[in-house]
Amino acid sequence: ELSLEQRIYKVDHNISEQLRSLGDKMGFLKASPRDTIEIHTKVLKEKSKDASVAKAQAYVVEGRLMILELMGYLASFYRKYYIGLSNINLSSRKDYP
Question: Which of 13, 56, 91, 95 places its Cα 20 to 30 Å from the Cα of 49?
Fold first, then answer.
């Protein structure tokens, strides 16, 4: 809804920051890309159920952009997490001759 408002009325709801926060929360909960798609699909079906055809199509278009952005943030979370673990493992290793 906020994304459609942002597009139609040219307001700023800072959706990217909300998606980044959601990606971090999902990563903390060990969500996978498949989980993200399942949630997206359920929400899209629910939102489109009583909507007009035009509004349902708008949800689909906006949803595609948002799901890609969210997946990017989720991937970024895991990349940061993996790099952090790698640094911990490297710093705790002791190389003996």
Answer: 13
**Residues contacting 3, CB < 8 A, separation 6+:** 13, 15, 62, 65, 66
Are 26 and 78 in contact by the 8 Å Cβ rule? The answer is no
Residue 73's Cβ-count burial label (10 Å; 0-12, 13-18, 19+) is buried
Those residues with Cβ within 8 angstroms of residue 36's Cβ, 6 or more apart along the chain or in another chain: 26, 67, 70, 71, 74
Cβ(91)–Cβ(37) below 8 Å: no
- pTM for the whole structure: 0.79
Q: pLDDT, tens digit, for every residue of 35-89? A: 999 999 999 999 999 999 999 999 999 999 999 999 999 999 999 888 776 776 6
